[in-house]
Amino acid sequence: MNVSLNNSTKKLCVIGDPISHSKSPLIHNTMINAKGLNYLYLCQPVPRGQVAQWLELAKFGGYAGFNATMPHKEELVPLMDELSADAKLYGAVNTVCIKDGKAFGHNTDGAGFLRALEEEGHSAQGARVMILGAGGAAKAVALKLAEAGATSVTICNRTLEKSQALCALDQWGVLQPALFTPQVLTEVASHSDLLINCTSLGMEGVGGQFQDFGFLAALPQEAVVCDLIYNPKRTQLLQQAKALGHPTFNGMGMLIHQAILALELFTDEVLDPEVMAPKVRDALQNPPPEK
Length: 291
Ligand code: NAP
Fold this sequence. Notes:
The chain is of the alpha/beta class. The protein has helices at residues 24-35, 51-60, 85-90, 109-119, 136-147, 160-167, 182-189, 236-243, 252-267, 273-285; strands at residues 10-16, 39-45, 63-68, 82-83, 95-99, 102-106, 128-132, 152-157, 175-179, 194-197, 224-227, 248-249. It contains 10 helices and 12 strands. Strand 5 (95-99) and strand 6 (102-106) form a beta hairpin. The radius of gyration is 19 Å and the shape is globular. The chain binds NADP nicotinamide-adenine-dinucleotide phosphate.
């Protein structure tokens, strides 16, 4: 990492609790270096419940902005001076730009996923989408795919009330709630072109795993399978789908593209994703040694 600092260097950071595992500093500092920007991106632990105090500190402490992850994304919403359309719709903020003491809240998760999908050579237009999960990630992905022209977006979730609440945000008339049972998953899969796992099932260290992958056998042969999880790189879901011949991709692209979009908002610079994404992938594969 070759970040050079001077008295005009602007500060950025990611906040969360926990946050020490975050890849955001490596991702952003890689792009900052590549573009020759005078910014420094740090990792800032902010305990649950203290995001309002943090925001005041950030506003007067010389920060140009920050990214937010769990558990702060929702709590930031009422604290913003202005919200982007996506942040308002998702009820969550992952990118805060600070200008003249005012906080502007954005959410780049949905747009980041859409770019990742397109980077993989797939389109949302006309797709019949099956989403597993109804949490924050599912909300951003489902609503962005609906906006981008998906024909249907079925939200299969263990807690049906949460999929119903997500579907209540539908402005395009394509979202529908469904249960997360083997029978329902199989039925929905049989008429889906794109399946996206937005649950934490399969994530390293979390421990939960799918009971069975029988629903994959019902997918049409050309259907694409995506897992938002990127650690491990290939979840059991992706391994099983690949073994059945489906095109697959993980959540690394979403992680990278939401960050590119966030850095554009922080800096008002245009970043070429075709230049930046490979540099970030390379940095993530070959991280600098820990000091
Ligand atoms: P969240 O808001 O906590 O939602 C978690 C979802 O997983 C809920 O729908 C929950 O269902 C479901 N779930 C958890 N355990 C389950 C189980 N045992 N059986 C069935 N469903 C279960 O989390 P999130 O922020 O949306 O994140 C979800 C996943 O996306 C995580 O793995 C996260 O790492 C990943 N993610 C990736 C990116 C990226 O850039 N690639 C960005 C954001 C998130 P209930 O509603 O029934 O509890």
